[in-house]
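Is iron/sulfur cluster placement plausible here? Inputs below.
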Amino acid sequence: MKKYNNIPIFIPELACPHQCVFCDQTKISGTQNIPQPAEILDIVNEHLQTIPADRHINIAFFGGSFTGIPYSLQESYLKEAYKFVETKQVAGIRLSTRPDYINTKILDLLKSYGVETIELGAQSTDDYVLKKSGRGHTYKDIEKASQLINSYGFNLGLQMMIGLPGDTCEKSVKTAKDIIKLGAENSRIYPTLVVKGTALEKMYHSGKYIPLQLDEAVEITKTIYKILEENNVKIIRTGLHPSEELTPEKSLVAGPYHSSFKELVLTEIWSDILSEKFKSINAEDVVIQANKAQLNYAVGFKAKNKNILLKKYSKVKFVANNSLQKYEINVSCN
Ligand code: SF4
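Reply from A.M.:
I modeled the complex. Tokens:
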């Protein structure tokens, strides 16, 4: 299977008219160094030097709502990126935007410049949660935009958040199910964090918003992760990228942040697999085979799963076996 690489180009939407309670507008539109269209050539060339040629490469316009910037500016960025699509140095272009910034004029433009994937920040499909979160759009907008994107033949990405104001585990599960129903090819799952300078920070300090605990966020994400995977939605991100900003000394006020959030989630998925498998195994030593890509998750974050098994068995060994499928295991005992 071909490996994927994105060349990220951060284009924050200047002066976004919306007021999502979790977003720090000044950080997004303030001091960021926004690359000009003329700089795209150098940025992409620089990245291409470090990416093996056999990869499926996308130029990815991230950072805000790409289709919310002026139409002519969108076209200028796309023109520069498309030069690399034409010369087959990259496979295509992807971008992220809001559901209410999609229409046929915009999709015609994106189609003509080789855009492959459009990721919508859906965040939730529950209108009450969307309203409490200040998103400024409804589920209808998500549905309409998704249908339009699919009808043009783009890959559809639907990002979701858990733990938003008014959200519950059941509502998050419903959002995941709606993401499947709407035909998403991929998704990202982000736990809501309280960031300095946001409306959510005020809600948090006044007791109107209680963030998820880390273990709750891991548990909800585990459930959603399984639902999406079982329905062939590719999960391309779980939890925020670790960054210097996301520390209590800087921007992070509260919330279920962990630099290895995905590992915590996969550890719990493997914990379920292992406890089911070992329910009725009585032995001294056990050897567990799993696919190499899954081995660390099977062992668990800080060897959590291995240590649980060591309470029952004297020796526990994990071994790679690439003939096994993602969540398949072979167990041998002495
Ligand atoms: S998260 Fe909301 S407020 Fe922030 S840039 Fe995106 S749409 Fe605007």
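Short version: The two ends are 36 Å apart (CA to CA).
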